[in-house]
Amino acid sequence: MHAVFVEVDIEGDVSVEEARKRLQEGAAPMVREAGARAGYWLAPQGGRGVSVIVFDSQDEAEKMADQMHVGQAPRNAPPGVTFRTVEVREVLASL
Question: Which of 5, 1, 85 is closest to 40 using CA atoms?
């Protein structure tokens, strides 16, 4: 298994409820359609959001990561949100 580790910078006022709604309506269905096994988006803190999206293969993870570009806004993100980190990493263990 491989995961896409993502950090976003959040400038301005983005509420947790707005983030939750946009993620559930946009990001989660998109990664599910791309074949993700699991995805976790953590509540933003200190102007930073973090997510981990798990795929069965490195190829699937890299294909997803190739759609995310540091410094650009995620699709359907509120204003002020930009990618800070996008990395593909091997999953070494899971529960």
Answer: 5
> Domain limits of the chain?
2-90
Q: What's the CATH class of domain 2-90?
A: alpha beta
Per-residue pLDDT tens over the stretch 30-48: 999 999 999 999 999 999 9
Q: CA dist 28 to 25, 92, 93, Å?
A: 7, 23, 23
Return the CA Rg of the chain: 13
Burial string for 33-65 (b: 16+ CB within 10 Å, else e) reads ebebbebebeebeeeebbbebbbeeeebbeebb
Q: What is the pTM of this model?
A: 0.93
CB atoms within 10 A of CB 7: 15
28 vs 41: CA distance, rounded Å: 9
Q: Please classify residue 68 by burial: count the beta carbons closer than 10 Å to its beta carbon, then call 0-12 exposed, 13-18 middle and 19+ buried.
A: middle
Nearest of 94, 23, 35, 92 to residue 63 by alpha carbon: 35
